[in-house]
Amino acid sequence: MNIDVRPMKTAAEGALAVSFASARDRLPGAGTKIAALREEAFGRFENAGLPSRRVEEWKYTDLRILMRDARALAPLPDAAAKLRARETCARLPSIEARRLVFVDGSLVPELSDLDALEPGLSIGSLAASLARADAGVVGRLGQIMPTADMAVALNTAFMGDGAVIDVAPGAVLARPIHLVFINSGTEPGAVFMRSLVRIGKGARAMLLESHEGSNEFQVNTVLELAIDDDAHVDHVKITRSGALHLSTLMAAIGAHTRFNEFLFTAGGAVVRNQMFVRFQGEGTIAGIRGACLLKGRQHADTTLFAEHAAQACTSREVFKSVLDQESHGVFQGKIRVAPGAQKTDARMATHALLLSETAEADNKPELEIFADDVQCGHGATSGQLDEDLLFYLKARGVPAREAQALLIQAFVGEAVEGIEHAGLRDTLMAQVAAWVATRAT
After folding, report:
1. 352 occurs within a structural domain
2. Both 137 and 265 in a single domain?
3. How far is CA 78 from each of CA 75, 110, 349, 369, rounded to the nearest angstrom?
4. How far is it, in rounded angstroms, from Cα 206 to Cα 422?
5. Residues spanned by the domain of 434
6. Contact assessment for residue 288 and residue 261, using Cβ atoms and an 8 Å cutoff
7. Which of 247, 239, 272, 367 is nearest to 315 (CA)?
8. Helix (H) or strand (E) holding 121
9. Looking at the structure, do residues 129 and 244 belong to the same domain, yes or no?
10. Is 344 part of any domain?
11. What Å distances lie between residue 81 and 67, 86, 131, 234, CA to CA?
12. Is the same domain home to 247 and 394?
């Protein structure tokens, strides 16, 4: 006799069920087929529950333990929240970019730069598209990289607002598009954001995404990115806040494309950045990199699935983690070379720098190869600062703290230098220096 044994619901799972029941009729698209999509997604979550260590992809980030409660959905931002968000925007690094500002999960046009769009650029609000049941937007949801992941299912069930961006074939954007997500509410809350970005054939664009503000918010954000042939696209995501921050990138990349991805994490109590990337056209070159700076009891998980589904694509995946005090860094990366994807050249490396005896690093790079004419490799290292290099610097009069800072910055800089935008590259290195300085105190 087979017995179906299901674990008891956690407090967070129960709170999510209550929240969905009370919010389903107020979410954008209520009364349209979006409602059925939400119901189906939440049904899948209810059957599976929060991912735990029993789910291999979530082995090191057990949400049944780490997510002790589920915050109520954040209300629409009031005037005071928008004022606090404006002050946060004023403190952001000065990078020439077109800003789209979302406050507590909602687009705020008066804080955004929506005027005089470049030829070939279209920007809209997901909430507005869902409310009017825009078939062109609704039909794209979940289609780029279909996944059974529970974080994505929850996002689909609760998704509120986000950006809908289309760059026409051949368009070249003169400045980056900066999606600024600010949590400024005075009460802890939860936000679920979904953005859809489509880059046309031969276009060039840079997308910058930053998450700022209160550390009392729970964030679940998804970006679906479709890139056509012969395009050049850069995506940089900066995470510096959140009690719980779940982020998913789903990207499908065409032929003969240049794609650069960079993740920078220097805040948040529990952060998981997961990426599902498919190279579905031949001859594409991609660089997927990231850096984590963690201290205290912070936990950051970077999980990557990169599928080479076409011939002659090249990818480089490099991730660096600096872990201090009792922090925990996780990297899980899998490169899959599909049958027929000959001439694939894929290399993955993850490196962790442990600054204390109590910091922990879990690295798990994997290869899954179903083609025979490929060059693939992976590697992982973890260790402390090089004592010989420290001695060399101190022997030349560099104080011990400054010598450590120089080595930490050099370690992270090997990943950051892959960012093509010089201003953003300098800004991130300045943030690395600031993080090291706070450690020194």
Report:
1. no
2. yes
3. 8, 13, 45, 52
4. 13
5. 385-441
6. yes
7. 367
8. strand 121-125
9. yes
10. no
11. 26, 9, 24, 31
12. no
Q: Do 264 and 404 lie in a common domain?
A: no
Token output for 416 = 């950051």
Same domain, 32 and 181: yes
Nearest to 174 by CA among 198, 197, 204: 204
Q: How many domains does the chain have?
A: 2
Q: How confident is the model at residue 4 (pLDDT cuts 50, 70, 90)?
A: low
Token pair for 357: 């005896």
Instruction: Tell me if 108 sits within 8 A of 82, measured CB to CB.
Output: yes
Q: What is the DSSP letter of 87?
A: H
What are the residues facing 287 on neighbouring strands? 260, 316
- Residue 434's CB is within 10 A of a number of other CB atoms, namely 12
Which residues lie closer than 8 Å to 145 by C-beta, 6 or more apart? 224, 250, 251, 252, 276, 277, 278
The residue written with tokens 């005075």 in the block is: 186
Indicate if 180 and 67 belong to the same structural domain. Answer: yes
Q: Which residues contact 291 (CB under 8 A, 6 or more apart)?
A: 262, 263, 264, 265, 319, 320, 321, 322, 412, 415, 416, 428, 432
Amino acid at 151: A
Per-residue pLDDT tens over the stretch 409-424: 999 999 999 899 999 9
Q: Which is more confident, 6 or 378? A: 378
Position 279, amino acid: F
Q: What average pLDDT is seen over the chain? A: 94
- Rounded CA separation 415/438 (Å): 21
* Tokens read off for 180: 């600024």
Of 344, 342, 264, residue with least CA distance to 302: 264
Are 29 and 129 within 8 A, CB to CB? Answer: no
Dump pLDDT digits (tens) for 217-261: 999 999 999 999 999 999 999 999 889 999 999 999 999 999 999
- Does residue 296 sit within a domain? no
Is residue 15 assigned to a domain?
Answer: yes
Write down which residue in 258, 281, 304 finishes a domain: 281
Determine the Cα–Cα distance for residues 266 and 167; give it in Å rounded to an integer: 30
Q: Which whole-number Å values give the CA distances from 375 to 226, 308, 331, in the listed order?
A: 26, 12, 22
The DSSP secondary-structure symbol of 161 reads B
pLDDT, position 6? 58
Cα separation, 433 vs 307, whole angstroms: 35
Using the 3D structure, point to which of 236, 260, 281 is the last residue of a domain: 281
